[in-house]
Amino acid sequence: MVTTPIGGSGGSVDIEGRVRLVMESALTARDRVGVQDFVLLENYNSEAAFIENLRRRFKENLIYTYIGSVLVSVNPYKELEIYSKQQMERYRGVSFYEISPHIYAVSDNTYRAMRTERKDQCILISGESGAGKTEASKKILLYYAVTCPMNDHMAALGDRLLQSNPVLEAFGNAKTLRNDNSSRFGKYMDVQFDFRGAPVGGHILNYLLEKSRVVHQNHGERNFHIFYQLLEGGDEDLLNTLDLERNPQNYQYLVKGNCPRVSSISDKNNWKVVMKALPVIGFTEEEKLLNIIAGVLHLGNTQFGEGEEGETYITTETQITKLVKLLGVYCDAFLKFGVVRVFVSLQMISPLNFEQAISARDALAKAVYGRTFTWLVEKINQSLALKGSSVIGLLDIYGFEVLQHNSFEQFCINYCNEKLQQLFIELTLRSEQEEYETEGIAWETVQYFDNKIICDLIEEKHKGIISILDEECLRPGETCDVSFLEKLEDTLGGHPHFVTHKLANGKTRRVMSREEFRLLHYAGEVNYNVNGFLDKNNDLLNRNLKEVSIMKIDKVQAATQFKNSLMKLMEILMSKEPSYVRCIKPNDAKQPGRFDEVLVRHQVKYLGLMENLRVRRAGFAYRRRFEAFLQRYKPLCPETWPNWHGRLVDGVSTLVNHLGYKPEEYKLGRSKIFIRFPKTLFTTEDALEAKKPEIVIVIQSGWRGMKARRRAKRRRQAAELIRRCLTDTLLLFVSACILETAFCMYTIPLVVYGSVFIRFIKGFIYRHEEYCPENEYFLDHVRYSFLKNLRKNLPKSVLDKSWPTPPPLASEHLRTLHMRNMVVKYCRRVQPEWKKQMVQKVVASEIFKDQKDNYPQSVGRLFLDSRLEREQINLKVVQTLGNDKVQYGASVTKYDRRGFKPRPRQLLLTNTFAVLVDRTKIKQRIDYTALRGISVSSLSDGMFVLHMPSEDSKQKADAVLQCDHVIELVTKLAMMAGKIDYVNISPGSIRFTVARGKEGIIDFVRGSEMKVTKGKRGHLLVVSQWLY
Questions:
Q1: Per-residue pLDDT averaged across 790-797, rounded?
Q2: Is 312 an active-site residue?
Q3: Does the keyword Repeat belong to this entry (predicted)?
Q4: 690 marked as binding residue
Q5: Which CATH number is 445-531 given?
Q6: Separation CA 127–CA 585 (nearest Å)
Q7: What is the mean pLDDT of residues 315-331?
Q8: Which of 178, 233, 727, 876 has the fewest CB atoms within 10 Å, counting from its CB?
Q9: Which residues are within 8 A (CB) of 637 and not within 5 positions of it... i.e. 6 or more apart?
Q10: What pLDDT shows up at residue 161?
Q11: Percent of the chain scored above 70 by pLDDT?
């Protein structure tokens, strides 16, 4: 795949979330926000450098970074305005690396690859719970729904695709300790497209729903959302029909986590969304989906008693009555479902003890909910069913999990991630090798960890952990979790990636329980507790439950079912071209702006990102097509600038030779250039950055030349128009003179005289009609008279808007031409310094006119380039500012935020920030991007306040300042900072931030003389002088 130079363009977000472009090619920008592709890290083997680059970008709200073609996404835990329709259009049809990393770039690149290469694609999204996987898949689906070609039918399908998300989230997501909306199942969705690239269908596969959550939740966690949404959002009639009460605490399956409500979740609103979505995806009221959900709640409230001989009986038959009504099953059979077990081969009935009855009840609840979820997915698939010619798959799968207590679910999840890592390495290496072979470059062997040994340890027939687990579950006689662990030790005792307490050395035994086994995964070591492995793997209901529920019970154990499903998924993914999104959670508290390096390092390790980077950097760090490389860097070589007309490979060769590339730093393929070291690319980027001022001058010259040619062409056209008008006018004038002379000399016969007179009178009568033979003589005479008068009364100044009233049919074109001619002459006489002065005065007028008392006195005074001489600015301060040159300086008085003690300061403005200076020391730096606003009073004083964000620990609180040239200073500051619309003129008082959570107030009054004192209630009192 191709990577981009950092100079391509980067993204950044200001304090209000608006996106702005950042040229990351400059070394200072790279130091601030890092590189946008980890492949360009100089020290790519350093995990610390990797995490530092992530941290820098995260602090600048740049949550996306590439590793080659892999997108790394860090959850910001706040809304960023980078997902608008305008942003979608910005990424639509643009080469993958031409602009800053984004989920839309991956979406668009995948879509265009499907269209152009006619090969199915897939996007694999992985990460911890709370890392943003579900949100990423939503953004991808939304991008396709908005940007793909659509008709009414396709729009309806796109709506169904989007509406399937809240339904699946309601039934498959839950609040966990790490995430308030955690997906508790794996999801693979195929989006099908027709030959035109329009979405026409879809299909969803679900994996490993966490059914145990239905009957048990850890403290602080909740059951699946749908239970709480039903109780909170359902109306009274619906709840009465389902025999439900609104309080979740009344249901055993909802009280174990002791978390019925979550502040970040509105169950009532989400219920409305789900109810609105169900009809869209094809559900009807006759399909009693909610009956099953209510039935599960009633099933959880079914209680058992224990007789004298240990037999079990149901004590809450009213719950059973409600249950059979809702589920539509046989009452008699259901009454004994949790009481006896039937042995078919021996034709025996065995009573269950109390614990077995509870387990049977919970097993039924899990089975009912699990099959309901599967049925729900099938119904969604029916509503999306329409076969397309091409497919883009979305895999939203759980990432590698290492919890304090790891059980059967974590074993399956981590096995899935081992297979995905194996697939990823295989496809990445294959893609790299194919690209090298296509370009005719020798393939270099890549050293990497092959995790096939771990996959075989888990899935190998007869010897793998899953086979041993199935064998133990099916073996006759007494089996338990401990016997399963012993069997693992006997079979896998010598495996280098398998350890138990018995097989471990003394140091490892101290941290391992006797009921645990350890696997050395590709991402690290994980201890699994075997308690519950056999029960969770069996996942079978006894004969009574099968009779009651009339459900097909699969004889295959859960782990083998999952392995088979995973194998099918691997086949699906191997048949497609993959793209990858790796999601990272920056902190466990879900706080925006907080970056927990320990937690991030843990995820970087378990997502295999460093291994990914090492594989990608094994050969060349950067590669790009000849035309793109030449187009970007051609200004650096005189022979290639402005255009290269030969073969592309010759042009690139000429360019790199001029730049002094060494043979070991690059290779030329058939259509791409390959650069080995990032520093080579950065040197080229910095050279381009230094060259840009010269390029700008060339472009400006060309642009000005084009404007001059256009202006000359318009003038020639105007001259031709005037020439024709003057010719017509001259003819009329000559005719009129001849006629007048003839009349005066009495040489025209009476008949002719009478004819002319009649034409004149007739024209006067028809003067308001369209130009016609009857009025042409009269109207021509009127025009001639108008032109004679106009010649003597033309406006002499651009400020003179007078113009003689034109006659009917007389064009306004002459007026426009004359005014334009006067404007051009005036503009040519204006000097650049005066033009700059006028621009500043116009801005000052926009801000202060009719708003501030002393504005009229400032109008006639020129704004100076600086109120400080160069010698007045300390040399040490100038050296500290470095390349940031002072554009304006003024002496100000700063008032302390506590006590309001006045202190003399200098305020220096640069292009990107302002500084407050106390003699040789910079006391405060004010970044324009962080400046929230500028406040001044409406009176004649010189006070102004610079408002800074209180939540930013790097910035001090608001600055309270006074200047004798306040209108000049505020105008220049607002223009440099781009904050003209953020100047606030307050008539009575100004509030400012003293410290986080504390405010101060400045009161303004009029008086006989200017005075600044500390007033009542701790306010700062400013007395402004009356202006007469």
A1: 78
A2: no
A3: yes
A4: no
A5: 1.20.58.530
A6: 8
A7: 73
A8: 727
A9: 654, 655, 658, 659
A10: 74
A11: 85
